[in-house]
Specification:
Blueprint lengths: L1 H8 L3 H21 L1 H9 L2 H20 L1
Helix pairs in contact: 2-3
Amino acid sequence: MKDFNKNVKKLDVFDIKLIELTSASFILFLITVWPALMILVHKIHWGWFLGATVIFAYKPLKKLFF
């Protein structure tokens, strides 16, 4: 675990953004190749996704601006 923490500290902002883009791309890949998942995502109301975005962004934005 110590080695993992040491390696994580080496990451800069660009590396973190690349990890985020990789995650988003993988989710879009899963939705594309797995029709059942695409149907499930399309059935969910857009407000749930907006709510999740607000909840997940709250803490980082709070640290950034306050």
